[in-house]
Design brief:
The complex is a heterodimer of chains A (289) and B (337).
Chain A lengths: L1 H31 L6 H19 L3 H22 L10 H22 L15 E4 L2 E4 H23 L1 H11 L1 H6 L4 H23 L11 H14 L4 H21 L3 H16 L12
Antiparallel strand pairs in A: 1-2
Chain B lengths: L1 H19 L2 H21 L10 H17 L6 H21 L4 H21 L1 H4 L11 E2 L3 E2 L3 H24 L1 H11 L1 H6 L4 H27 L9 H14 L6 H16 L6 H15 L3 H10 L36
Antiparallel strand pairs in B: 1-2
Helix pairs in contact in B: 1-2, 2-7, 2-10, 2-11, 2-12, 3-4, 3-5, 3-10, 4-10, 7-8, 7-10, 8-10, 11-12, 11-13, 11-14
The chains are: A mainly alpha (289), B mainly alpha (337).
């Protein structure tokens, strides 16, 4: 029982990363109709951003948590303005392919510079140690990741559903023509939304840095698992991607207690079952099938 | 006359190839060329972007390797069996994937390929996990040795050519015409009474089976197989070949495979920045060179009524956009799923 609870906790941590990444993918997809393959690479850049800020400038984790995502957002903004926008008139698959090419490029440049092994990044001193709850010990940093990412997800939900900026984004997602006709400059919002989405990936990268080795390929397999989660949840809703992320993370971890080899495979099996039963995804609408 | 000259030149190149370069590389070009041509049945002619073809190429490679090493199955039976196994794998996986379209299909095929990767990685007793399968014998029926790379090239070449002819036959048959119709407008094809789902599934299974066969030919060439054969980077590599050569063209996949593999071999003596090079090729092709090499050259070289008959009217995976696209949708084309 104790093992299961601990695994459940670890699974929720994994789920937090799935949630942050698929949330960013969903926000971008809603506005741009682009599936951003670079998401994993930008997550990796976020982690390296924290590492480089720390080693070269002595910037603390807390400042890195702000600066690195903003830097990743700037990279995303630049790429959207210079490259992605050129392909909006074509089939959306071309932008998937473009971001795939960019992924190969970014990952390999980082590999040439930093090697494949990865570099260590310490957790901030305030968050080292463990928290004792009853008979269980939770690493403080992981607890922080869980709470913080939940807060970010909630904040994003609030931003999209409850603010004026969110209203414009939702309207542009729903019907860009009509939104334009109502006097909103939709094209001005597109790079901003893209930058916001990839900033979430950068943020996830900073959060991952103290827990996982900071290495050029850290986002490569994660992005594929995130794609499976996006298919399971359906890219329709903000809430859907967050819930699916946490649930799938927890399920995989608990399954690993009984059958360790299943940990990596389970998410794809769940995806297969969802495709069989509800092809549009758990939270998706039939329109998007 | 011009056509006959062209084919003769192509045959001459195929026969001379192992004398122009390292024979193992020549065999790689031929087998990857077949893999790319099989992939193009889906990408170029049906408009299905599968991001997970490594599962079938690599799965076929593992199947042929294990059959040769553990069961003593000789060449080319092991490669043919690899094709059957890859085709059998495709029935459930592609059957599920084609329930979604477009961008979702790409993500689902990628995810299933990752699943195959993890299964092969975890199933160490069978596949050797990270060590892969090593010491695969290269023996023809009757114990005839094919150990010489040159001999193997000339044994594998006719088989690869048969596979290629099969690919070309598929896309030019009445069946292939329906695939083109699906690419151009899936809803309309369905309205005309064609069982679109069944056509897509058969196309996918055929493509995957031929990919598995190519994987079998490829693995016997090297004598070992490791996890990178089923890794997503292999799916990306075959995609690079087809895009660079020209999607929906007959010779594009071959040209792409030859160029990419030769370039990789050539560059490997200078630098290990292969990912940078592939990434740049990829980005350049997507942004400015969407027709690819053959797609650009063909209309210039071949004139007459048949010119460009099966190549896309405009560069595009599905130039018509497909279902969910309304002509009034504004300047930004919206293609949901």
């Amino acid at each position: 029982m104790e093992t299961i609870l601990i695994q459940l906790f670890n699974g929720l941590i994994n789920g937090a990363f799935y949630a942050l990444l698929s949330l960013g993918l969903a926000v971008i997809f809603g506005m741009l109709r682009v599936v951003n393959f670079m998401h994993g690479a930008l997550y990796m850049l976020g982690a390296f951003g924290a590492f480089l800020l720390g080693t070269t400038l002595g910037v603390s984790f807390w400042w890195a948590l702000v600066i690195s995502p903003v830097a990743v957002a700037a990279v995303g903004y630049g790429l959207e303005r210079t490259l992605l926008r050129r392909l909006y008139d074509l089939d959306v698959l071309y932008n998937l392919l473009l971001t795939f090419g960019l992924t190969l490029l970014i990952q390999d440049v980082m590999r040439l510079r930093f090697g494949i092994q990865g570099v260590p990044y310490p957790a901030p001193p305030q968050l080292q140690g463990v928290v004792v709850v009853g008979f269980m010990f939770f690493p403080t940093y992981r607890l922080f990741v869980l709470v913080f990412s939940l807060a970010v997800c909630l904040g994003t939900w609030w931003l999209i559903e409850r603010t004026r900026a969110g209203m414009i984004i939702r309207a542009s997602t729903e019907n860009p023509m009509l939104t334009r006709a109502l006097g909103v400059d939709v094209d001005r919002w597109i790079p901003l939304v893209f930058a916001f989405g990839v900033a979430l990936a950068g943020l996830a990268g900073v959060l991952a840095a103290p827990m996982r080795a900071v290495s050029p390929l850290m986002g490569a397999d994660l992005i594929i698992t995130t794609f499976a989660i996006v298919v399971i949840g359906g890219m329709g809703s903000i809430l859907g991607s967050v819930v699916t992320g946490f649930v799938v993370g927890a399920l995989s971890a608990v399954a690993a207690v009984y059958y360790p080899a299943a940990a990596n495979v389970l998410v794809f099996v769940i995806m297969a079952v969802v495709l069989l039963v509800r092809p549009a995804g758990l939270f998706g609408t039939a329109e998007a099938a | 006359m011009r056509r006959a000259l062209g084919w003769t030149a192509l045959a001459a190149i195929a026969l001379a190839l192992p004398w122009l370069m390292y024979p193992v590389l020549a065999t790689d070009i031929v087998t990857w060329g077949l893999f790319a041509a099989a992939f193009d049945i889906l990408l170029g002619y049906t408009g299905l972007l599968s991001f997970g073809q490594a599962a079938y190429f690599g799965g076929g490679a593992y199947a042929a390797a294990l059959l040769a090493q553990r069961a003593g199955v000789s060449f080319p039976l092991n490669a043919l069996a690899a094709g059957l196994i890859a085709g059998a794998m495709a029935v459930p996986l592609m059957g599920l994937a084609i329930r979604r379209r477009g961008i979702y299909f790409a993500m689902i095929t990628l995810a299933f390929a990752e699943m195959v990767f993890y299964v092969i990685n975890e199933w160490r007793s069978l596949t050797g996990g990270e060590n892969g399968v090593q010491g695969i014998p290269r023996v023809a029926p009757g114990g005839f040795s094919l150990a010489s790379p040159l001999v193997y090239y000339y044994t594998a070449l006719p088989l690869a050519v048969l596979g290629l002819l099969l690919c070309w036959r598929i896309v030019r048959s009445p069946f292939g015409r329906v695939l083109l119709a699906i690419r151009e407008n899936e809803v309309r094809t369905e309205m005309l009474g064609y069982p679109v789902v069944r056509y897509k599934l058969i196309a996918a299974v055929l493509s995957c089976a031929i990919s598995g066969f190519a994987g079998g030919l490829w693995v016997i060439n090297h004598g070992f197989v490791a996890l990178d054969a089923v890794h997503w980077s292999t799916s990306g590599l075959v995609l690079t070949m087809v895009l660079l050569g020209g999607i929906g063209t007959r010779l594009g996949p071959l040209a792409g495979a030859a160029l990419v593999l030769y370039l990789r071999d050539f560059l490997s003596t200078w630098t290990d920045a292969w990912g940078v090079v592939t990434g740049l090729i990829f980005i350049a092709v997507i942004l400015i060179f969407r027709r690819g090499i053959v797609g650009t050259l063909e209309p210039l070289l071949v004139r007459g009524p048949k010119a460009g008959r099966v190549s896309p009217s405009q560069p595009g995976l599905s130039p018509q956009g497909g279902p969910g696209l309304s002509p009034q949708g504004g300047p930004r084309r919206r293609l949901t799923g």
